[in-house]
Specification:
alpha/beta, 29 helices, 3-stranded antiparallel β-sheet
Length: 811
């Protein structure tokens, strides 16, 4: 592909949705967008290839759709093209048949539908959207763009219609814990009985070191079509996706009497499905799932999915299923089924997730990991309670990179982490808790109540127990505790420094600086260890491998640094990677370090919306303009900065004059426009009118000052404009002259390392903020005793009463 950042590509594709918004819900208009994107992809990829994975009939490429722009009957003609493609590619027929590009209810009539579809097609005609080579060096450009759109559509669709998409963060966890990375043969199989748009299958398949045989079933016709498109776009064109109700009519069977069995299963079924028995032979299932003794509740299908999965696993099979928390503790029929799964040793692990992660529901969910291979030897269940690890993202919660890594590290390494993960024996589960798997029974969240000390409130003083609770800080700063606090009486102490100086005193303490140096040294070691591989980056390197290497090394470097959680440091790195560095790595992988010479220009547009020759702005595609300017044109940058400072000062002083001398009788009232502005021309005109008039001397002085300030402002604006234009010319010229070593230095050291280092510094600064905040909180809490509060209240009450008596309200 041409040099383009993924973030820019995503923004462009999402903007194409503007042509359809308003006329229909996101759950509907997504199909129009994704189908056109898909046709563009298969046209670029398979046009004129008679033996390609997809057959494109003559006259049915995206180029042929482009020719329809502005024509009457455009929607009907697009339908015909899609119908012809569907005839040649059976797996695409369901979704192509389900979407009508000539629907007046959704797209309008006559000119409206013609303009709407013409605009939509135009958005996909850019030279940047060339998908002939979308998998260079593991860069699945279109696949990632497709997933981005699916996530955005799910977000816009809301609670009731976003179930077709499983958040990528959760999919990544399932792909790891199902251990598909252990696959060794192409004969091994991967299955999702409720595959939706296929995102879970794709994440798991990408985790496998070998190409797996992929199977999926989805009840919704349109969504199964999306899954087929998703598979093709991600390079899994041989995936076998079928449409139908898995519980009533499973499509993958052997001799119609036995379910096909698989090596790996991943699934995110609809939660607590009430209508799951429709079409099911309840109590006499021919596949041995829902039979007497193994009957899920008729109005809740969670365990129906579990039974289908366990019957669909071969004797060495593993599964990871997303289910509501209720499956862990609900009683009656579900309690008996839970007992069945535990007694047979099928449940290897449980991972509790935060609430409000999924688009279809806000309830908390869990991942249940099933393993048949070692079921007979299982002595217990490995549990993780990860419910508190997330970040708010709009109206949803989202797992951070550090949350994903912490969960997968703990599960795959069977690491017992206090208040997070532990192996629970069968005895504890069965004898102590009677088969109840509710996670809080086994893993305490670790949250402690902040107790108010009555004696401290009555007599003053900070409880020593509260100070001692900060032991993790005193272990690292052993003398700081006595530096900040002094004994007051038994069990209580006082603060040695003023409250408003706590932060300063902590920051200058020698032990704090020693620890800061430890952090700096660890970071410097990480830079030293990864710099050679970054300098040697070339087209043969896979960005995903590079990122994993950077992440593993920074986590390893900070694993033993006190007060610094290695997962927090990991998050600093991955946040920057996701925001900027990932795009850079893919640019370098696909186009080489020469990308550092490429400039992205933005031109002004005329009234018709067409780009003009007037340059509006520009920036380097890989090397930011500001970094280049500071590195090579420091003097020019300083000069412009000085002029900007002068301009800001002049503007501020002009504003102050206007504030002081505006109004009907103000000395500047004659020169202030209706909009509240003042111009140099009007000021100088008024000065000529009143010059020499003794009655107007004060006004003249103010106008003279205003004249000087406006002149300075205009001079600074003009000078800045000229100097900025000169600097822009120098920068543009310099981009073309950059050597590869210069580009590497600018990108690696001035851009990447500078940003990551700033993030790590901020993370360590937060250590002092946490200590400071707690010390200040405790000091202020017990600063005033209850008797003192009562005395102040009494004084104020008497004062108010006296005032009320004087006013006649009390007598």
């Amino acid at each position: 592909m041409p040099a383009i950042k993924k973030s820019d590509l995503y923004a462009r594709l999402w903007k194409s949705c503007d042509d359809l918004r308003g006329g229909m819900d996101a759950s509907e208009y997504k199909n129009y967008i994704l189908i056109l994107l898909f046709v563009k992809y298969i046209s670029d990829k398979y046009k004129n290839e008679p033996f390609g994975d997809i057959k494109i009939p003559e006259g049915c490429s995206f180029d042929d759709i482009s020719k329809l722009k502005g024509q009457d009957g455009i929607g009907e003609q697009i339908n015909i093209i899609l119908e012809n493609i569907g005839k040649e590619n059976e797996k695409l027929k369901p979704i192509f048949d389900a979407v009508n590009f000539n629907d007046p209810a959704k797209l309008g009539r006559d000119k409206e539908i013609k303009d709407k579809l013409t605009g939509l097609i135009s958005n996909f005609e850019s030279d940047d959207l060339d998908f002939r080579n979308t998998r260079a060096n593991d860069d699945d450009v279109l696949g990632d763009a497709y997933e981005y759109l699916m996530r955005m559509f799910a977000t816009e669709s809301g609670k009731s219609k976003g179930q077709f998409y499983t958040p990528a963060e959760v999919s990544r966890i399932l792909a790891k814990v199902v251990k598909v990375c252990n696959a060794k043969s192409r004969k091994e199989t991967l299955y999702d009985p409720a595959c939706g748009s296929g995102s879970l299958l794709i994440r798991a398949a990408e985790e496998s070191p070998v190409e797996l045989s992929i199977y999926g079933q989805e009840s919704e016709t349109t969504t199964s079509g999306l899954a087929n498109m998703n598979m093709i776009i991600h390079g899994f064109s041989t995936a076998n996706i079928k449409q139908g109700n898995t519980l009533s009519t499973p499509k993958f069977t052997e001799n119609d009497s036995r379910l096909k069995q698989f090596d790996y299963i991943v699934m995110n079924p609809p939660f607590s499905l009430k209508s799951w028995t429709q079409g099911v032979n309840y109590g006499k299932d021919p596949f041995g799932r829902f039979i007497t003794g193994l009957l899920p509740p008729e109005k809740n299908g969670d365990y129906a999915w579990m039974l289908h999965v366990i019957r669909s696993l071969n004797q060495k099979g593993r599964a990871a299923i997303i289910l509501p928390h209720g499956v862990l503790f609900r009683g009656n029929a579900e309690g008996e089924l839970r007992k069945y799964f535990i007694d047979h040793g099928f449940i290897e692990g449980i991972i509790g997730l935060p609430t409000n992660l999924f688009y279809g529901t806000g309830i908390p969910a869990c991942i249940v990991i099933l393993d048949k291979a070692n079921a007979g030897l299982r002595k217990g269940i490995f549990m993780i309670n990860a419910g508190s690890g997330f970040v708010k993202d709009g109206n949803k919660n989202r797992l951070r990179e550090q949350d994903i890594r912490k969960i997968t590290d703990a599960y795959l390494g069977e690491l017992e982490v206090p208040n997070f993960s532990r192996f629970v024996s069968n005895d504890e589960i069965i004898k102590t808790n009677e088969y109840n798997l509710n996670l809080p029974r086994y893993i305490d969240s670790g949250e402690t109540e902040d107790i108010q000390d009555i004696e401290g409130h009555l007599h003053g003083g900070i409880p020593v127990s509260d100070v001692d609770s900060l032991s993790k800080f005193w272990d690292v700063f052993p003398t700081m505790k006595n530096y900040l606090f002094s004994p007051l009486r038994e069990g209580y102490c006082s603060l040695n420094v003023p409250v408003d100086e706590v932060a300063f005193k902590i920051g200058i303490h020698p032990e704090f600086e020693v620890q800061a140096n430890v952090v700096r040294e660890k970071y410097a070691e990480w830079e030293k260890s990864v710099k050679p591989c970054l300098i040697d980056l070339n087209g043969d390197d896979t960005p995903k491998t590079v990122i994993c290497n950077l992440a593993d090394k920074i986590q390893d470097e900070f694993k033993d640094v006190s007060l610094m959680d290695k997962y927090d440091v990991y998050q600093v790195l991955l946040s920057y990677v996701n925001d900027a560095m990932r795009d850079d790595l893919y640019l370098i992988s696909g186009n080489g370090w020469e990308s550092g010479r490429v400039i992205s220009y933005e031109y002004a547009k005329d009234k018709a919306g067409k780009a003009t020759k007037k340059l509006k702005s520009f920036d380097g595609l890989l090397v930011p303009k500001d970094i280049l300017a500071n590195e090579f044109f420091h003097d020019e940058v300083v000069k412009i900065g000085k002029m900007q400072s002068d301009l800001d000062t002049a503007v501020q002083q002009i504003d102050e004059l206007l504030e002081e001398y505006s109004g009907d009788d103000g000395l500047l009232s004659e020169v202030i426009s209706e909009s509240g502005k003042v111009s140099l021309k009007e000021v100088q005109k008024r000065m000529k009118e009143i010059k020499g008039d003794k009655n107007s001397e004060d006004e003249y002085k103010v106008l003279d000052l205003c004249d000087k300030l406006l002149t300075l402002q205009n001079f600074a604006k003009k000078g800045m404009k000229e100097d900025n234009e000169k600097l822009d010319s120098l920068i543009i010229k310099k981009y073309s002259e950059l050597s590869i070593p210069e580009i590497k230095s600018l990108v690696i050291e001035k851009k990447w390392f500078h940003s990551i280092s700033s993030g790590v510094d901020s993370l360590f600064d937060s250590v002092s903020h946490k200590l400071e905040s707690r010390v200040v909180e405790l000091a202020k809490r017990y600063e005033t005793t209850l008797p003192e509060c009562a005395e102040k209240t009494d004084v104020l009450e008497k004062k108010v009463r006296k005032d009320l008596e004087m006013m006649g309200y009390i007598w």
